[in-house]
Amino acid sequence: MKKGIDAPLVPIMFLVVGIVGLVMAIISKDWTNYVFPIIFLLFGGLYLHTSLLGKYKIIERVVRKMDLPRDAQVLDLGTGHGAFLLEVAQRLTSPGKIIGLDIWNQGDQSGNAIEATQRNIEQLGVSDVSELVTGNMVKLPFENNVFDSVVASLSIHNVKPKSSREKAIDEAYRVLKPGGQLVVLDIEHVREYQSRLVKLGASAIQVKHAGINGMYAALSTRILTAKK
Q1: Collapsing DSSP states into helix, strand and coil, what is residue 7?
Q2: Considering all CA atoms of the chain, what is the largest pairwise distance in Å, rounded to the nearest integer?
Q3: What are the distances in angstroms from CA 9 to CA 5, 14, 15, 166?
Q4: Host H or E run for residue 178
Q5: Which neighbouring-strand residues pair with 183?
Q6: pLDDT tens, 89-106?
Q7: Which of 30, 50, 160, 188 has its CB 3.0 to 4.6 Å from that of 54, i.e. a possible disulfide?
């Protein structure tokens, strides 16, 4: 399975600053100058671990707890390389289906392309229950009340400004069936999403920290769940 690094410029920055700082610390022969380079290198390593391994463990655990029926209709917002999509697809049988929607921006995830994600789908053998579409989460091309679940992993925070993020939450809620579940993993603006869902009338809203596998340097992934 091909994977991408989330916001790839961020870990590159951490590692470059750490390496340069480490060289300067060696030249200075002052041990106190090692502190910040080591912190930056640790941040870079932690970021890469979460992006390439940790978030997949979180998603596997989250999807298991969702207890999806085999014929569920699911929407994945900002699917990227399909971390959420592939985990869900393995639990579905036709007519169950998951649709992965993305604008395929490589600044949000390295190598982000619909062709790459389609190859991941085919390699896993879940083409019969998976579909990819190009679209914007602030204006979803779907009718009201059509999905049993809507999921999003580290994607909504990329939508700017705040009013557009609120629109993305509104749209996710709109396409959910009554009684459907919304699951959002994100490192920023989670309380903002929570407040919006309260205004929309959502129930059973919960926010939990994802733990060490969700640490993007100093930013912690949180898991928001809600019912329509």
Answers
A1: coil
A2: 66
A3: 9, 9, 10, 26
A4: strand 176-186
A5: 151, 225
A6: 999 999 999 999 999 987
A7: 50
pLDDT (0 to 100) of residue 148 = 98
**Alpha-carbon span 121 to 115, nearest angstrom:** 10
| Residue 125 burial (10 A CB sphere; 0-12, 13-18, 19+) | exposed
Report yes or no: 185 and 225 within 8 Å, Cβ to Cβ: no
Whose CA is closest to 169, among 197, 191, 148? 197
* Both structure tokens of 86: 């592939």
Instruction: Please enumerate in sequence order all residues whose Cβ is within 8 A of that of 181, keeping only pairs 6 or more positions apart, or say none.
Output: 66, 148, 149, 150, 225, 226, 227, 228
| Cα–Cα distance measured from residue 168 to residue 135, given in angstroms and rounded to the nearest whole number | 12
d(CA 189, CA 167): 13
Residue 108, pLDDT score: 73
Instruction: Specify the pTM.
Output: 0.90
Q: Is the dihedral of CA 123, 214, 203, 80 positive or negative?
A: negative
Mean pLDDT of the chain: 94
- Across the beta sheet with 203-209, the strand order is 130-134, 97-102, 73-77, 147-153, 176-186, 222-227, 203-209
H/E/C letters for each residue in 111-123? CCCHHHHHHHHHH
Q: Which candidate, 62, 86, 103, places its Cα nearest to that of 186? A: 62
Rounded-to-integer distance, Cα 17 and Cα 10, Å: 11
One-character DSSP codes across 43-85:
HHHHHHHIIIIIHHHHHHHHHHHH---TT-EEEEET-TTTHHH
